[in-house]
Amino acid sequence: MAALDQKSPNVLLQSLCCKITGKSEADVAHQFQYAVRVIGSNYAPTIERDEFLVSEKIKKELLKQRREADAALFSELHRKLQTQGVLKHRWSILYLLLSLCEDPKKPSSRVPVCCYGSLFAQALPRDVHSTPFYYARPQSLPLSYPERSAAAHNSSMATSGISSMGVFSINGPGPTPPSLLTGPGTQAVGESMRGSRLAWTVPVSGSPSGAAAAPRPPGGPSASPAPKAPNRPRRDGDGSAEIGEAALVRDLLYVFQGIDGKFIKMSSPENSYKIDPKVPLCKSLRDTSSRLAELGWLHNKIRKYTDSHSLDRAFGLVGQSFCAALHQELKEYYRLLSVLHAQIQVEDDQGVNDGMESSLTLRRLLVWTYDPKVRLKTLAALVDYCQGRKGGELASAVHAYGKTGDPHMRALIQHILGLVSHPILNFLYRWIYDGELEDTYHEFFVASDPTVKTDRLWHDKYSLRKSMIPSFITMDKARKVLLIGKSINFLHQVCHDRTPPGKIMPSSKSSDSPKDATELFTDLEGAFQSKIDAAYFETSKYLLDVLNKNYQLLEHLQAMRRYLLLGQGDFIRHLMDLLKPELVRAATTLYQHNLTGILETAVRATNAQFDSPEILKRLDVRLLEVSPGDTGWDVFSLDYHVDGPIATVFTRECMSHYLRVFNFLWRAKRMEYILTDIWKGQMCNAKLLKSMPELSGVLHQCHVLASEMVHFIHQMQYYITFEVRVSISPEDIECGISCVA
After folding, report:
1. Rounded to whole angstroms, how far apart are CA atoms 702 and 490?
2. Which of 78, 216, 246, 371 is deepest in the core (most CB within 10 A)?
């Protein structure tokens, strides 16, 4: 049991007091009581646990010592430390480093070893943790030092310090030991502890020594009166006295966050923060406070927009990025407010320059909040401008708002644009490099219609959503972007080409960060244009190569030229000779299988037989709609069947044009064929009719008329073939495709 008592906290604490003071147990009763009450108190820490503030202080210390390189190195190391989860108490380590870097030549607030006796003379009021007055003040905004001193003096409170020794003892109040009232160490400790939480005056009921507990000026006589703290203006706003500037500053720090203060509140009818007209306040302070309160209104406007859209999924990724950018700016704004709160907290903890006025005034607030106010004004105006917009339209609004001559505001808008356009850039990269369109909320300027079938994929499935085209992307670039992704999907779904996209285009596939998006969009005529052009060139070239090699696009074009545009002369002439007996009959008596057999005979008898079987099997006969009185010449037509990827190139509309041109050329060729037969008949009958001179004039007129008709037909065919370019040479077709590729 004795061993247990020796290890109890009280025994160990008493031994510690004896060790520090070098006195016996009987002589350290007051010090032991003080130590017990310190351990049992619930004082909050006097230091703001803000890792950012501590790191900034360390960097400022390094800069004061002209160690810019070390400051930069520290900033980089601190940034790396934040990304790792090795340390859980980074603030404590940084504060330790800050404490270790203090100049030892400066006057220290630590208590020297020789003055431990005086330290223990700093008596604490009893039961401070149960005193109701302690929680009467908000912990975040405590009273400043002069107010505490004045309150302690006027209400006869007990104070900590040398002069309060003897107020409390184990058995109650007692006389102050004279040995603890003298010596230079006592004065040093009294000065060093001023402003700390241990030096706060706390009201104690029933203390008979309140008047005698006021601190004495160091070095002065014992009978000299205690210095009177300066009286600050009343804070209660009860009409008996004008409220002070410090109270307005505290109110404004809450208003800056959109929280109603004690004197400044939101007026719903006027939609602005107003100072209570019943509060006694001079006009200058009222006007300055109203100007500062505008920050709270701007904050509320931005915060209302972000709160209403952050959880709205229909707002899309671009809208969420915009809200994230606004949150980021508000976070920087909150960081400034935390610094201002910490400034007031430090002044309250340490005393405002030993009784002087606070360094945080309304005019200084005006200066310190000037830049944040300009930024919030820009953001609030941007929020108004972007109301009801989403996707690419929202990005266009942000981009348009960045056209300003103010470099700082332009940098702010460009930063926001980088965040907003990052999802659009991801959409764009996924589209032009993979052909994938993951646009759940319809934000991208390329739209897809899932109801369209594969055979109409190229023409109808994908289109431009013009309202969503960002203003920094031209219509020409948007069309190229559409064609790039459309080509990739055409290769995959129609041509069944399984080549990985990386082999088609070896370019970068995505942006790593919003910064990349900003840098890319700021160089729209350079890097961005080159990326789009390179992807467009590579994709188009690969698509044409696949169509030419796997689906003989060039051969099909030449086949249509030879057969539908009558480029294969021997075949067309022989076909007419074979069809003449059939086509002179009525159209209703024709049978397609008979005409198909004649077509195959004409192919085998001419150079057409050397064409590819893939080409010849697509050549067929087609009978047009029959009208009363039509002959076979009126309804006969050649046809060319297309399917698969080739059908995408030669659409129904395209084939309809080909058939119309064929019918026109076929009729012209028939007229030439008839005129040729007439000329042959005239040549055969010329010798027989020489014996009839009375017919020479008529025959001459017939020869002239036939020659004019032949000349007209030849000129028309020449015009159609070479001027209109209906029949293009194979070399021209090949050259055109290679140029496109």
Report:
1. 60
2. 246
Write the DSSP string, 177-235. Answer: PGGGS-SHHHHHHHHHTTTSGGG--B--TT-TTTGGGSPPPTTS-TTSPPPPPPPPPPS
Residues 6+ positions from 594 with CB-CB distance below 8 Å:
582
Check residue 719 and report its DSSP letter.
I
Domain range spanning residue 78?
Answer: 51-100
Tokens of 576: 């007419």
How far apart CA 569 and CA 464 sit, in angstroms, is: 45
Q: 548, 572, 593 — which closes off a domain? A: 548
State the sign of the Cα–Cα–Cα–Cα dihedral 112, 115, 116, 121.
negative
Do 466 and 445 form a contact (C-beta atoms < 8 A)? Answer: yes
Question: What is the spatial distance between Cα 343 and Cα 358, in angstroms, rounded to a whole number?
Answer: 10
- Compute φ and ψ for 648, nearest 5 degrees: -70, -35
Parallel, antiparallel or unpaired: strands 636-640 and 619-623: antiparallel
Contact criterion met (CB below 8 Å) for 98 and 57? yes
**Residue 228 falls inside a structural domain:** no
pLDDT tens digits, one per residue of 593-646: 999 999 999 999 999 999 999 999 999 999 999 999 999 999 999 999 999 999
Q: Annotate 699-713 with DSSP letters as a single string.
A: HHHHHHHHHHHHHHH
Nearest by Cα to 322 from 399, 431, 427, 428: 399
Q: Give the HSE-up count for residue 587: Cα atoms under 13 Å, Cβ half-sphere.
A: 16
Residue 109 pLDDT exceeds 50: no
585 and 724 assigned to the same domain: yes
- Helix runs in 265-315, H state only: 283-310
Q: What angle do helix axes 527-551 and 475-493 make, rounded to 10 degrees?
A: 30
Is the torsion defined by CA of 380, 383, 385, 388 positive or negative? negative
Alpha helices for 41-134 (secondary structure H): 51-64, 68-83, 90-100, 116-120
Q: What is the phi/psi pair of residue 26, to 5°?
A: -70, -25
List all residues 6 or more positions away from 494 whose beta carbon is below 8 Å from its beta carbon. Answer: 454, 455, 457, 458, 644, 645, 648
Number of structural domains (the chain) is 5
My answer on whether 599 and 725 are in the same domain is yes
pLDDT in tens, 439-490: 889 999 999 999 999 989 999 999 999 999 999 899 999 999 999 999 999 9
Query: Lowest mean pLDDT: which of 350-364, 575-589, 708-722?
Result: 350-364
Closest CA to 289 of 222, 242, 332: 242
* Whole-number Å distance between alpha carbons of 551 and 646: 7
Query: Which token pair is 453?
Result: 């079938």
For CA atoms 696, 702, 706, 709, give the dihedral sign: positive
Q: What are phi and psi of 100, to 5 degrees?
A: -70, -25
DSSP 8-state symbol, 158: B
CA distance 241 to 502: 78
The answer to whether residue 227 sits within a structural domain is no
